[in-house]
Structures are given as structure tokens and as C-alpha cells.
Design a protein that fits this description.
Helix content is about 35%, strand content about 20%. α7 links the parallel β9 and β10. α10 crosses α14 and α12 packs parallel to α13.
Length: about 950
């Protein structure tokens, strides 16, 4: 504990778990007086060379004075942080605030000297980079704006840590040392560096779980059956390429193997390394297993055991302890209560899950928080008839259960640059960090499609076992924000599979124009109507008649694909009397042959009860079940997802064919499903094109950022949070070029007349009581009052209808030019971050929920799309002969509000209502602003794992 002389209490919010460059984890925390022995032990394990680099002289041991200095901090002017694994120090960093003369100082001095020391065994793991991010965030919190560091020229590793961080810095050489000075304000480059390091580290941590070199199943039963034995058999049957171990403390001591696989009573008894441990024992025994795995150097855990947060408060605390325990050893966890993981790569062949059969290899990455939904998705992806046909397989599959540690965000980091994954499908029951998920989704979607279905949308609470940040945003808003990040949002797992199969093996459409051809006029018309419903532009259907032959389909499809007025083709097919498997195969071959000649346009098939055609369309060397010799040690079993008699065998020559040697065509049992998937692909392709030119955040010369910061600081000095008064709101908004029309209070009729004389007629009289504010439909507003007589009459009507003036709070305001009433809002959501919203003012828009949303900061392109994305947008652009309004002025207003909340996180809510947009210019007639102290950490802060 800290002594009474320390100026601040222990800052527990500085504690954090981080993922290191190699995928392992470490804990960062403040150093206290209780760490004296740990510090001495740590220093003894540092090489003489590293000590020399730290102290610029031989320094074999720390003196008692040194230990006292390095463990006694006031957490303001002197701060030390340590990175720990297993409770022991592996690295330290400290800063000391200094003045202009380089001597120790206190605030308001805003510079500090910083120094690091990393154990040699842990150098190269990115420990110093992580510590720099965290000590920098601590320093900014304590009012320090600049770091200085002196480094010996030979200490190139540490110089690289500083220079690679991306901060604005100065560097000079004097007195035999390199002196580095750098500002701590995040820059675009420093954030890019931080995000890139985060991606590499988190991707590597997941890779260690999905591509282990060796696996131990802890809890393997001696007889078939049970969770542990089932997973063990599944790994073995899949032909896992590395060493596999069976572990069960109930094994007799003399037992050395289980069906030819090495067997042990404890992980500690295994002679070789173990990369992954699959834990399938009762929850009460898991802590012992975690300790054994940590001591043995296991890199990660898949915990199938139940009895954690999903079971109630005691289980939630058990789950917290599990995560803390595993991270203390540098291990990451999938689970608990997980279904398992699968990797179909021929280099791994890992089925560490409860799925009884390995899915076919393919290009789809699949993530499910629910084991039941996960097995349903695997089944649908492999079904060979009666629905969407399986035209491709799975690259990797993760079912995270309670996702206490590894989450969808982590797996997205892995899939982002995974060369084996082309499409990502995710079933999410909760989004623990929407702000980060949106950021990662935007980057991933720019490289490969990301399709998401979210369960428990209307449950009002997170599923049992999930730790989720509270959000005040409705689900529809979160969904809209995800779509703007490029996420393909669907509502059901059927739509998830439908879209995924199309995106996995067909090119993206270049536009919404759809050709329709087939042998059924009725089915073609249904497809045409479905296209219109999805916002596509269908061409008139081409009816080939029921007597169409495969050659007729081939010719029609070839002509449609060659037509420059067509961006995609939907083929409709119904069976004809006497058709059989041979005819199905001929038609499938004809369609594949024609589509191969135009590889840039997607082709979909809508079929009715044509199981043979569906299988023929989906058959390909890269994904069809392989009739090759079983892998050594594997177990032959029937496939759980399809009958054995419907498998399509392949030859050895087929197996060597490249993945994309055959163009696979997805087939759908209903026109609506096919067209809905195509519609999502069209919208996603449009997003990809727009994302290539995201626009920019304009810099307005009249914005007074420093003046606004000073004003906000002075206002917040009054209290922890406050809603600004009218004059303060106008002053703050004015510093960002947002000018609010003045309104004068009118507590009496005579005061209203005096206000009108000051402002000049015509005027408006408004009631500002909360229940009447912005409700012209209730009669609380009187407009175009041209003289004193009209004003007094309006005043009497308002007070007669709604009550006394002190209840109505009437104000008088000068009339603004006529236009369209709109509303602009910005809010800081604790989970999603800063969100800018726009819509038309009035009860109708509120009733319909017709608001559009964008994440802050908003670019000029996003501001334009924000204005145009509401359903009532035509009212702004001359609907039914009305005069179009000044949308460029409206877009500029949106950009200025975005800048305000982005520059000043203390501004937690802004409402401009109404904003009257005229044919030239606009008028902000009402405004409110709320301030609150900014959070200690935000999205610009250092990399951390979710706290538990």
C-alpha cells in the first residue's frame, strides 16, 4: 500500500491486460511499495548490457535507495508501471516530471523524463511499445504533454521503440547520448501505428489458438462418450497434423496411451510443448488445470466447461477468476461454455469442437457465440439439397460461448489478413465493444465481405454470461452504424448463409441492373418483383419456355452476361416431365460453362425441387467430399450433415486442382432469397467503391478550438456535469461557426412587446416548457407576428390554452426565412462513441424513426450521404415542385458539429432543433449543449484487453 505522504490513491484504472507481439498476454499495473522484492528479483535477471543501457554505467545491483525511489510514487509527478507475467516483473517504465531546467518539478510543468527496462528474455515481444502507450496515456491524464528520453547510441532497440511510435518528435545528439523529445498528443500516424500493432498482436493470439502445433485434451474419458472424449475423438478423426495428448488425472499410473495416443495424468507430465489445451472438466477443477497449463507453458485454452457466468452471480465471479488466472500466465481463452474451434487447413486439420465431423475446406470464416447456432450454420453450409446448396466450405470456425476473453473482435483481427478466408460470417448475441467492432469491421469490410446476424436484438439485456458495455442507442441505430462500416446486416441465419454462399464464390456486381432468364414465366415475374422490392433494377424477364434445353440456357446466359446493360444474372429453372440426374448435370454444366466466359458478373440460380441440379451446380474439386485414403490415425464416420449416398466422389487429379479452377454457382429454393442475397451484394459493392474515396474532414479557418477548450474548462470547473444556459450555448457553438438565433424571454406581455421591438417585427412567440418545446403541432408556437396587436393576442391565446407564463416559459424570436425544419444531434454513447444524427423535425419523423446516423468524425462525403439517407430526404430536394433547400449549408453545419464533439470529448450531447434550411442558408433556432468530464480512457487510449 502507498504511504500517507503519497498525494494520490492507487490508480486502479491504470491496470490493464495487453496482448504482446507474439500473441501472449501480460498485465500492466502501477508499481507500489509492496513491489520491492519483485523489483530486486527482476533486476537480477536483467543482463549487464541492458543494465548499462539503462543507467549509462555498470550497475550490477540496486541499492536500498534505488529500490525505495523506484517503488515510491505519488502517481502524479512520479509514476512507475510494470509489465508482469505470473505476477513477476518482466519490464518496467517510469516517468519523472521535470521543469524547463531539467530538474524535478510539479504541475504546471508539462514535460517528463521517461526510461524503460525490459528483461532480455522478453525483448522483441513488443513489451516496451505497449508500456510506452500506457505510460503516455497516464502522463496525458496527469497534464504532461511531452516526454524526453536519453538513450545511448548503441541502444538501437530502445531508440526504435521511440521513433516507431508515430509521435511528433525531435532528436539530437549531445554529450554522447541521443536525446529524444516527443509530444504525447495522438497523431494520425501514432494511431495508425497503434492500431497496426493491435491487429498483429491480437491476430497472432488467435492464430496460436487456431493453428497449434500440439494439443492436449484435458478431461478425456477412458470410454467413448462424454464431452472430453468426444472432442478427443473428433480431433483424432480429423487427422490433426501435430502431436495429440489425452489427459485425465483418473488414468491409471501405468496407462501410457489411449487408442494409440499418448495419455497422461497431468499436463505437467507431458515431455514436449503443448500449444493448445482443450479443457473439458467440471468447473471446480478448472483452476487447477489452468495452473498446470500455465506452468507448462501452454499458449492458449479452449474451455468447454460450463458452470460460469451463464449460471448466475457465483458463476460470473468464477468466470472473472478464470480469465484473471489464465492471463496471469500469458494465455488467452476461448470460452468458457464454448462449443470449440475448427481449422480445415491441410497443414492443421483441427476439429477441437463438439461437431462430430470436420466440415469441408473452403473460404468462409465462421464465428458464432452460440454452439447451437454454430452447428446449425455448419449444417446449412453443407446441406446438399432442399435449400441453399453448399457451394463452398469453411476455413476456420470459432464458437466462443461466454466469450470471456477472445471475442468476435479478436477473430476479426485474425481473419482480416488470413489468406485462407475470403468471406466472414458472424452470429453475434451481443457486441461487447461496438466502437472497436465498428472500427475493425470497416477495415475488414474494405478487404473482404463481413456478414453479421445479431440475435437477442429485442431481449433488452445481454445473454447470460456476456459482459457488455451499456449503450443508450437503440438497436436500429447500432445496426445503421454497422452498415455504414461496411457490415452486411441480415436478420436470420438463413439470410446469413444465403449471402455468404453468394459472396464466397461469385464476383461483386458492379451495379444494380439484373437480367432474369429461365424456363418459367411465373418464376421470372416473381424474381422481377423481388428485385424491385430490394431496390434493384431488373431487366424484363426472358422466358425460354418449359421446353428449353441446356443449350438454350447456355446461349441465353452467354448473351445476358455479354450485355453491357447487365450487372448480374438470375437464372430461374423448374423441372420438366421426365428430367433426371443426367439432365440436371447437363444444365449445371451449361450454366457453369457460360458463366466462366464472363467471370466479372455474378450468376445465381433459383430452382424449384431440383436437388440434382443443386448438387451439380455445387460440385467442384475444391469443395466436394474427398474420396481419398483416410489420414493416418483418423476414424471413418458417416457425415452428420448429409446422406452418404449423395456424396460426389472425386479423383486424385481433381484433388490437385486449384481452388478457383471451377466457377461455382449458388442455387436458391426461392426467388426472394436469391434476390435478397444479391441485393446485399450490390449494396456492399457500392460501399466498397465509396470506401475507396472516404472523403476528408474539412478544416474551417474560423473555428476557435483553443477558445472553446478554455470556455469548456471554465464551465466544467463549476461541477461534474451541466447543461449550458442559453448564452453559454450560443458562445460555445459560435466558436465553431454555428450561430444560434437569439431569443429573448417574455415573462409578461409587456416584456414580449419590448423583446419584439428589440428584435424587429415580424417575430415568433414560442413556449419553451419541456412538454411544449419543438411541438408546433400542439400549438405552442405562433409565427409571423407582424405587430404589437398580433403579439399580444398570441400571448393571450398561449397562456389561455396552456397555463401561466411561468409554466410556459415563453420567448420571442426573430423570424427566420421559410424552409424545411430539421434536427441535428450529437451524443457520446459509452459503448459506440460519438454519434452524429440528422432528420427532419416534427412528430411524423419521430414516429417513423426517420433519423440517419454517422460515427464522428464525419467526412464531407459522409455528411452528404447523411443528408440523403433519410426516407424524407426528397423534401430537401424539391419534392413535388417545392424549392430545393441549401443542402451544402446543411452539410457544413453537420461537419462543424462533428468537429466540435470530436475535438472536445467533454461535449457529451448537442441538440440543434429546429434548424430551418432555406433556399439560401439556414437558421439554427434552438440549441442545447451538455458537458461532462471526459473519461479517463477513450478509443485513443492504449491497447487493452477488456477488463474483467
Amino acid at each position: 500500500m502507498q504511504t500517507s505522504s503519497d498525494r494520490h490513491e492507487y490508480p486502479a484504472h491504470w491496470e490493464a491486460d495487453v496482448v504482446l507481439r507474439d500473441g501472449g498476454t501480460a498485465r500492466i499495473r502501477p508499481i507500489t511499495v509492496d513491489d520491492a522484492d519483485r523489483l530486486v528479483s527482476f533486476y537480477e535477471q536483467v543482463s549487464d548490457e541492458s543494465k548499462y543501457y539503462r543507467f549509462f554505467a555498470p550497475y550490477p545491483r540496486l541499492s536500498a535507495k534505488d529500490v525505495h525511489r523506484f517503488t515510491h510514487h505519488d502517481f502524479v509527478d512520479r509514476v512507475g508501471l510494470a509489465a508482469t507475467i505470473g505476477g513477476e516483473f518482466i519490464a518496467t517504465v517510469r516517468y519523472d516530471r521535470i521543469g524547463a531546467d531539467g530538474m524535478p518539478a510539479a504541475a504546471p510543468a508539462d514535460e517528463a523524463e521517461v526510461a524503460f527496462l525490459v528483461q532480455d528474455a522478453h525483448q522483441g515481444r513488443g513489451v516496451a511499445s505497449a508500456l510506452l502507450e500506457h505510460i503516455g496515456a497516464v502522463a496525458r491524464e496527469r497534464g504532461i504533454r511531452r516526454f524526453a528520453a536519453e538513450v545511448l547510441p548503441a541502444n538501437t532497440k530502445m531508440i526504435k521503440v521511440f521513433t516507431d511510435a508515430g509521435y511528433t518528435q525531435k532528436r539530437r545528439f549531445e554529450d554522447g547520448v541521443v536525446r529524444l523529445e516527443f509530444d504525447l498528443e495522438p497523431t494520425d500516424r501514432s494511431l495508425a501505428v497503434q492500431y497496426a500493432r493491435e491487429q498483429r498482436a491480437e491476430a497472432r493470439s488467435v492464430q496460436r489458438l487456431l493453428m497449434p502445433g500440439s494439443v492436449a485434451v484435458v478431461g478425456t474419458g477412458r470410454a467413448p462418450g462424454g464431452v472430453g472424449r468426444s472432442v478427443f475423438d473428433n480431433i483424432r478423426a480429423a487427422g490433426f497434423t501435430g502431436p495429440l495428448y489425452a489427459v485425465n488425472k483418473a488414468f491409471p499410473e501405468e496407462r501410457k496411451d489411449l487408442d494409440g495416443i499418448p495419455a497422461y495424468r497431468s499436463v505437467r507430465d507431458i515431455e514436449g510443448p503443448v500449444d493448445l489445451a482443450v479443457v473439458a472438466v467440471p468447473a471446480r477443477y478448472v483452476p487447477e488445470i489452468v495452473a498446470e497449463c500455465g506452468a507448462h507453458g501452454v499458449q492458449g485454452l479452449v474451455v468447454l466447461s460450463a458452470g460460469y457466468a451463464e449460471s448466475g452471480p457465483e458463476g460470473r465471479e468464477r468466470q472473472r477468476e478464470l480469465v484473471r488466472h489464465a492471463r496471469a500466465y500469458g494465455m488467452r481463452i476461448i470460452g468458457p461454455n464454448a462449443f470449440g474451434v475448427i481449422n480445415t487447413s491441410s497443414d492443421v486439420r483441427l476439429n477441437a469442437s463438439l461437431a462430430p465431423e470436420m466440415p469441408r475446406p473452403g473460404r468462409i470464416g465462421l464465428f458464432s457465440q452460440s454452439g447451437a447456432i454454430g452447428i446449425a450454420l455448419l449444417s446449412r453450409l453443407h446441406r446438399r439439397g432442399g435449400g441453399v446448396t453448399g457451394v463452398t466450405g469453411v476455413s476456420t470456425f470459432v464458437s466462443s460461448g461466454n466469450r470471456a476473453d477472445v471475442s468476435g473482435n479478436d477473430v476479426l483481427q485474425y481473419w482480416y489478413d488470413d489468406p485462407d478466408t475470403d468471406v466472414v460470417l458472424m452470429y453475434l448475441e451481443s457486441i461487447g465493444n461496438p466502437r472497436k467492432f465498428t472500427r475493425l469491421a470497416r477495415r475488414t469490410a474494405a478487404a473482404k465481405p463481413l456478414v453479421v446476424v445479431q440475435g437477442a436484438r429485442h431481449g433488452g439485456a445481454a445473454p447470460q454470461g456476456h459482459a457488455v458495455r451499456a449503450t443508450r442507442l437503440p438497436h436500429a441505430t447500432v445496426s445503421a452504424l454497422l452498415r455504414q462500416a461496411g457490415v452486411i446486416r441480415v436478420d436470420t441465419i438463413t439470410e446469413l448463409v444465403d449471402a455468404g454462399l453468394l459472396l464466397a464464390r461469385q464476383p461483386l456486381p458492379t451495379g444494380p441492373r439484373v437480367a432474369i432468364l429461365g424456363n418459367s414465366e411465373s418464376l421470372g415475374l416473381l424474381t422481377y418483383d423481388a428485385c424491385l422490392s430490394e431496390g434493384l433494377r431488373p431487366l424484363p424477364p426472358q422466358d425460354l419456355t418449359t421446353g428449353a434445353s441446356p443449350e438454350d440456357f447456355h446461349g441465353a446466359l452467354s448473351r445476358a452476361l455479354a450485355d453491357d446493360a447487365c450487372d448480374a444474372v438470375v437464372v430461374t429453372a423448374i423441372p420438366t416431365l421426365g428430367e433426371g440426374p443426367a439432365q440436371d448435370g447437363e444444365l449445371a454444366q451449361a450454366l457453369r460453362s457460360a458463366s466462366a466466359r464472363a467471370p466479372g458478373k455474378p450468376v445465381l440460380v433459383v430452382h424449384v425441387e431440383l436437388g440434382g441440379l443443386a448438387e451439380a451446380l455445387s460440385a467442384a474439386a475444391s469443395t466436394a467430399p474427398r474420396a481419398s485414403a483416410p489420414v493416418a490415425g483418423s476414424v471413418d464416420r458417416p457425415h452428420p450433415f448429409r446422406p452418404l449416398d449423395r456424396l460426389c466422389a472425386t479423383t486424385a487429379e481433381d484433388l490437385s486442382a486449384p481452388e478457383n479452377s471451377s466457377r461455382l454457382i449458388p442455387a436458391y429454393p426461392a426467388a426472394e432469397r436469391a434476390v435478397r442475397a444479391l441485393g446485399e451484394a450490390v449494396k456492399y459493392a457500392q460501399w466498397r467503391r465509396e470506401a475507396a474515396e472516404p472523403g476528408k474532414v474539412p478544416a474551417y479557418e474560423d473555428i476557435d478550438e483553443k477558445g472553446a477548450a478554455a470556455l469548456i474548462g471554465g464551465l466544467l470547473a463549476r461541477g461534474q456535469g451541466l447543461t449550458l444556459g442559453v448564452d453559454e450555448t450560443r458562445e460555445l457553438l459560435g466558436k465553431y461557426g454555428v450561430h444560434v438565433h437569439g431569443a429573448l424571454p417574455a415573462p409578461t406581455p409587456d416584456a414580449a412587446v419590448a423583446a419584439a421591438r428589440t428584435l424587429g417585427y415580424p417575430v415568433a412567440l414560442k413556449a419553451t416548457a419541456p412538454h411544449l418545446r419543438h411541438r408546433a403541432d400542439l400549438g405552442g408556437v405562433r409565427l409571423d407576428l407582424a405587430d404589437e396587436e398580433q403579439l399580444r393576442r398570441a400571448y393571450a391565446e398561449l397562456t389561455g390554452l396552456f397555463g401561466k407564463p411561468e409554466e410556459l416559459r415563453p420567448v420571442v424570436q426573430g423570424m427566420a426565412p421559410r424552409g424545411v425544419d430539421t434536427v441535428v444531434r450529437a451524443v457520446i454513447d459509452p459503448a459506440a462513441g460519438a454519434v452524429l444524427s440528422f432528420g427532419l423535425a416534427g412528430a411524423a419523423s419521430q414516429l417513423l424513426g426517420d433519423m440517419a446516423h454517422r460515427l464522428v468524425p464525419v467526412t464531407d462525403r459522409e455528411a452528404g450521404s447523411l443528408v440523403r439517407s433519410i426516407r424524407t430526404a426528397p423534401l430537401l430536394f424539391g419534392w413535388r415542385g417545392s424549392t430545393p433547400v441549401d443542402t451544402p449549408a446543411l452539410e457544413e453545419l453537420l461537419l462543424r458539429v462533428s468537429r466540435l464533439v470530436d475535438d472536445h470529448p467533454e461535449v457529451v450531447a448537442v441538440t440543434l432543433e429546429p434548424v430551418v434550411v432555406a433556399s439560401r442558408g439556414l437558421s439554427v433556432l434552438g440549441a442545447s449543449v451538455r458537458l461532462a468530464p471526459p473519461p479517463a480512457r477513450d478509443d485513443l487510449g492504449p491497447r487493452t484487453l477488456p477488463a474483467y
